[in-house]
Amino acid sequence: MVNTEKLKRLKMALPLIGIGIFVYIVQDIGPEKIYEALMNIDPVLMAISFLIFFPRITLSTYKWQLVAKTQGIEVGLPTMIQINIIGLFYGTITPSGLGDWMRIFYLKEESGDCFGKCTSNVIIDQFIELFSLFILALFGSLLIIEYFPGILVALLCCGAFFAFIIFLFEEKKRGKRLLRMVYDIFVPERLKQKVAAEFDAFYHGIPPLTKLVIPFLIAVFCYALFFVQIYIVALSFSIDIPLLEFILVYAIASLIGLIPVTVSGLGTREGALIHLLAIYGIAEQDAVAISLAGYVITYLLPSIMGGVLSLVWASNASDRHPK
């Protein structure tokens, strides 16, 4: 029998692994060296980098809206942008960005659609994001295969595993058989009918893959903009890396940062970047400084905006949906 108490402790302890890695990296390099590197960052470049966030989040949300429309979910772009930024706030403070699932509840509230359909919409959007990052990282692994051949092998294995998972659940009948045990054991009798209806709604709105090609291409471009933001900050260190190579190599570190042993990739991302950027002659402290500055620009500042928006959203709930 599963010990739920041990599972809870493990869940709480996992994010500490990445933080421990980060602390070790800082102590190993030397806090003063990292601080000195951070002081070398040009504030003008930081400001230019941050401004790119606004067209990026707009384009990323438009991609999400395209998916929603294929499922019959109609919510205005400005509202979805707000929800997306709020999701970024919750995703930043949770391992692997799991807090981004909060978008489901906001989307349900605004669209009036059922929970199952909104859940499938957010999951599809997250899958598109993950797959686009995976593709960029895959090309990046080909660039550095001479130095780290194991990365390509690991990515191919992970890709095969997730393809198998998608194969298991993408078809309704097959997914229903796999989830039947969970349904029978854990779902109370009084909720079984409602859960079954939400399950049907989850699968009913899933669009064909051909409808996801354009959203995928937009997602790839949005991730490229994401890494351009960091590249602009990295120019403070007079780096000698072509932009395209920087995008592809940084995608690997970002993918590693999604391993659920930390929050916002802290520690795992820096550890990966130290080794990846060393190929281009970038010092350890500069690699960590680039990572931290990139985190502030692409995650921390936007997530603060998301936190404020979530408070405003809650205070205006009665105005948006009067009884």
Largest sheet geometry: none
Compute the CA-based radius of gyration. 21 Å
How would you state the average pLDDT, rounded?
A: 85
- Uncertain runs with pLDDT below 50, 5 residues or more? none
Count of distinct structural domains: 1
Following the backbone from N to C, one meets helices and strands in this order, namely HHHHHHHHHHHHHHH
Residue share in helices?
A: over 70%
SS elements, strand count = 0
Strand content is under 5%
N-end to C-end Cα span:
47 Å
Give the count of helical stretches: 15
Please identify the structural class as seen in this structure: mainly alpha
Shape: globular
Brief descriptors of the model:
323 residues; single chain; globular; mainly alpha; 15 helices
Give structural notes.
The chain is mainly α and 323 residues long. The protein has one domain. It is built from 15 helices and no strands. It has helices at residues 4-29, 31-39, 43-51, 53-70, 77-92, 103-111, 115-143, 149-169, 172-186, 192-204, 213-234, 243-256, 268-278, 284-315, 317-320. Helix 4 (53-70) runs antiparallel to helix 11 and helix 7 (115-143) packs antiparallel against helix 8.
Helix and strand topology:
Layout: H1 4-29, H2 31-39, H3 43-51, H4 53-70, H5 77-92, H6 103-111, H7 115-143, H8 149-169, H9 172-186, H10 192-204, H11 213-234, H12 243-256, H13 268-278, H14 284-315, H15 317-320
Helix pairs in contact: 2-14, 3-11, 4-5, 4-7, 4-11, 5-6, 5-14, 6-7, 7-8, 7-10, 7-11, 7-12, 11-12, 11-14, 12-13, 13-14
